[in-house]
Amino acid sequence: MGYPARWDRLREEMAREGVELLALVPGANLFYLTGLHFHRMERPIVALLPREGEPALILPAFEVEKAQRAPIPWRLFPYTDTEGPASAFHTAAAALGGRGRPIAVEALGMRVLEWSLLAHVFSLSEPIASEPLLARLRMVKGPEEIAAIRRAIAAAEEALQRWLPEVRPGMTEREATRRLIQACFAAGADALAFEPIVVAGPNAALPHATPSDRPIGPGELMIVDFGAVVDGYASDLTRTFVLGEPDPEAARIYAVVREANAAGRAAVRPGIPAEAVDQAARAVIEDAGYGPYFPHRTGHGLGLEVHEPPYLVAGDTTPLQTGMVFTVEPGIYLSGKGGIRIEDVVVVTENGGESLTAFPRELRSI
Ligand code: ZN
Ligand code: ZN
Fold it and tell me: How far does residue 238's CA lie from ligand 1's centre (Å)?
């Protein structure tokens, strides 16, 4: 879907919600609608997209040339460092005439910096969150987006393949992580989707542990969770390995998590609520008696952001649609001992789900 089609969809959604103006800051939503990537710095940049009429962009003067290269008929409201942004916000608001009209902002992305400038010039009192509206646009991926996610996955899987032979007992988690980062870039990643997690032994019992200076010991389970970014789109992949031979309990729990991952993937099909995938994966872990040791949701949408709607969690009743992409990542974590998580990326197809990740899921000893 090109930008004009995305804008048409945006305007439909704005009309549906009664929103007159959408204010965006640098990040995934602005990139999705314009292809523009700006850094979020102390100098505010705000795009104002009216339901009717030309969009406006308030930005530092030195960014004007970059904005003009985007295929968007912007009205630009630049400010210099000596002027500061206040007068550019006033001029833009006067030009758009949005005072007192319903304006949606990014509740998750906008800072007090931008909000206070906007609230002042548009006389706003309460922010209207634009996330539900933007999620309806972004949740269903177009073929070009799925192709980019596939490239991001290919880079991550190649990186994992290259990196595994380098890992040995005695290496610290931090050193192993450093090597994984190098492998990601060598495999074609433009950037990392997030700071990779390589954690072993008791550290692996924390679902989002940070790699430490602790050496990875023989016989320990090691969780590797990371992703690459290619052409703006992210991958997200977790595999759990064992250094040497697993103890019988570890092997048994691994089999449970693997079955839960398979059950979650198998449940995917259009029309069911997102929470049904969570239920399918969770039931396997609960039936095996490990329910309390699976403390997080089963997965999250994936695209321009690593965590985006839909969320595979009880209470998210978003009906799955062909083209949605999300992770399925059940895990079991035993405090003080270790943890296991197996994460795949699944796209909803016309009659089911297809795992875009293909890295083997058998417990591999390294
Ligand atoms: Zn992950
Ligand atoms: Zn994930």
Answer: 5
